[in-house]
Design goal:
The chain is mainly alpha-helical and 469 residues long. Helix content is 78%, strand content 1%. It has 19 helices and 2 strands. It has helices at residues 2-34, 38-41, 43-56, 70-81, 84-97, 100-125, 138-146, 149-183, 187-202, 205-234, 239-250, 255-258, 261-276, 283-287, 295-324, 333-345, 347-379, 384-399, 405-446, and strands at 128-129, 134-135. It has a two-stranded antiparallel sheet with strand order 1-2. α5 crosses α16 and α10 (205-234) runs antiparallel to α17. The protein is globular, with a radius of gyration of 21 Å.
């Protein structure tokens, strides 16, 4: 088994070093320029859309009944984004790549927001009608946009394995570690409780997942942000030195503190992707469920999701760790983050971090399941495989309490490389549609109208678009 995971580790290292890293950064730069820096130009519109989405677009004229609102779709995607990547992933990036990894996570988030916009807008354009909500994602725009079902199935299988198995193991293992260390509870008992909670939520369907995410995500994110802000304010005199350390380490100017430049860049990009998922092709599944009047609206919200995830929540974790001075202690993952919290807040810090890990990771388990189900529905229209998948997901969550975190990370990195390559290839081939949609949205917005879209506006592909009638 050790030899197997050694081979997996070597393969993913080659893929990330020579293919995925270049593809991610290249696409993010290209989309940012081609979209004329949409993630910055329309930031105010993102905020407005976030707070108006529940009342403006939730009653969709295409279906005549209430579906998943734009905000609920945003919350589902954020539920998956905001997880162990924000707590354990950031800590791992700092532990391996040094403080400089934080800088490259910031850079990647600023650029990757454009990629998130692209894939979410495409998911909306090619979404399909379901029983109680819309559904879609990369597999769907691969089939209906590129007319390549086999590519969609390949991507779908990759998502199911990545999020339905590998990612769930990481979330479950992280929860078990945190709760076990804090309260001395056996991992088997924690895993059993997690399995029961997972079954309760996922067997309720997409709308229950949406309602759950809309409630729990804002609650946990705001609480974590406020506590982290308190720590930063208390240690405000050390913040300038911390920022200087991040910048120096990012460019290899402080080797003792930050390691080599390559490690900082690699860890910043890899863990940044694991956290904000831009370009990975997972968040578009949530984006597709929203009832809105124009595809670009959800694209803007998903771009904002990258900012919330990385520039806010990941940065909070990084600051808490760096201000504690424990970043080079040899600890890793949630254990390092927990030690940093305990340094600042005593026993309460360890307790609060444990509660945060539980909420963050469990919300990600639910979001991950949703992504897997979306692709199961793409591969087969039969209902029994969905029920089987729900049971398998719950069992995987249970077994997550018994695997090692290092093995799970190796598998996830390899699987992420594969689905990133497939998704970005499809996005590049379909990019022209997004450019036209953005131009149309911009024109209507300048005229003071609430932008709307009809599939007749893209006559060359209107037969491939099921919704937007």
């Amino acid at each position: 088994m050790d030899d197997f995971f050694y081979i997996i580790g070597r393969i993913q290292e080659v893929l990330w070093s020579y293919l995925i890293l270049i593809l991610l950064i290249g696409c993010s730069l290209y989309f940012t320029v081609r979209l004329r820096f949409v993630q910055f130009r329309y930031f105010g519109e993102m905020v407005r859309q976030l707070f108006s989405s529940n009342k403006n677009d939730s009653n969709d004229a295409q279906t005549g009944h209430r579906n998943v609102s734009s905000f609920q779709a945003f919350a589902i995607s954020l539920a998956s984004r905001v997880g162990t990547g924000n707590l354990a992933g950031v800590a791992s990036a700092i532990a391996v790549g040094g403080p400089g990894a934080v800088f490259w996570m910031w850079v990647m988030a600023l650029l990757a927001a454009a990629t998130a916009f692209m894939e979410a807008t495409l998911a909306q354009l090619f979404k399909r009608k379901g029983e109680d909500s819309f559904y879609g994602g990369p597999a769907y725009y691969m089939q209906y946009g590129l007319h390549s079902r086999w590519l969609g199935i390949l991507f779908g299988v990759g998502i199911i394995i990545t999020f339905g198995i590998g990612n769930q193991l990481i979330q479950s293992r992280t929860i078990c570690d945190a709760v076990s260390v804090a309260f001395g509870v056996k991992s088997s008992m924690i895993a059993a409780v997690l399995m029961a909670l997972t079954i309760t939520v996922i067997f309720g369907g997409v709308r229950r997942i949406g309602r759950f995410s809309a409630i729990i995500v804002p609650f946990m994110a705001v609480g974590y942000l406020l506590l982290s802000l308190y720590i930063v304010v208390v240690n405000i005199q050390h913040v300038p030195a911390m920022l200087a350390l991040i910048v120096k380490s990012a460019f290899g100017l402080q080797q003792a503190a930050g390691g080599i430049l390559g490690a900082a860049v690699m860890q910043g990009v890899k863990r940044g992707l694991f956290s904000n998922e831009a370009g990975e092709g997972s968040a578009p599944h949530a984006a597709a469920t929203a009832s809105i009047t124009h595809p670009v609206k959800q694209g803007l919200l998903q771009s904002m999701g990258v900012f919330v995830d990385t520039l806010l929540i990941c940065t909070c974790t990084a600051f808490v760790i760096l201000l504690s001075g424990l970043y080079d202690s040899g600890e890793d993952g949630s254990i390092l983050t927990g030690s940093a919290m305990e340094f600042h807040l005593g026993g309460f810090g360890r307790w609060y971090l444990t509660a945060s890990v539980f909420l963050f990771a469990f919300s990600t388990i639910i979001g991950n399941y949703f992504y897997g189900e979306s692709n199961m529905r793409f591969i087969t229209h039969r209902r029994w495989p969905i029920h089987v998948f729900r049971i398998v997901t719950s069992v995987i969550v249970f077994f997550g309490g018994f695997v090692t975190l290092q093995q799970a990370w190796s598998l996830i990195d390899l699987l992420m490389a594969v689905i990133v390559y497939l998704n970005l290839t499809a996005v590049l081939l379909l990019a022209r549609h997004v450019y036209r949609l953005l131009d149309d949205y911009t024109l209507q917005h300048r005229e003071g109208r609430n932008p709307t879209f009809h599939r007749s506006q893209l006559p060359e592909i209107k037969d491939d678009i099921e919704c937007w009638e």
